[in-house]
Write a structure and sequence with these properties.
Elements lengths: L7 H4 L14 H7 L4 H8 L3 H9 L6 H11 L18 H11 L5 H12 L5 H13 L1
Amino acid sequence: MGDILFLPVMARKPSQKPTDGLPNRIRYWRLQRGLTINEVADIIGMNRTYLTRMETGGRNVTIEWMDRIARTLDVSVADLLNDKQNPYALDDAEKALIDRVRATDGDILPALSAVADTIRPWRGQADVLPFASQRKAG
C-alpha cells in the first residue's frame, strides 16, 4: 500500500491551541517570528510597555495598531484576533498548505478534498445518511 498522508494540524483539538485563553494572538505571532517585544515596539513606533499591555489584554487594540502590528509580523489583521473571535485562524503550516494548493492549476482540489473527507473523523450515522438518500434518489 502507499504512504498515508497525515496532516498534524488537522489532528489538533481546539482545546490544544497554543493561543487558548489569550486576549489576542499578537504575542503568539511575535514569538513565532522570533521577535522581542522591544523589536516590534521599535518597528511600529510604540512604547514597549504599551505593547505588552496590548498583548496581555490590559489595553484595547485599535484597528490602526492591529494593522501596523500585522504588517510587522507578516500576518493578516484577522490572524491577530483570539481564537474565540477568529476560530478558523490558520497557523503557518496550514497557510503554507493552502498556498501550495493555490499555486497549482486547480486540478488537485478534488483529490485534496477526497483526502480530507477520508481522514476526517467518522461521525457515525450522520456519514451514512447522505449516501442512503443518494441511493434511493438514483
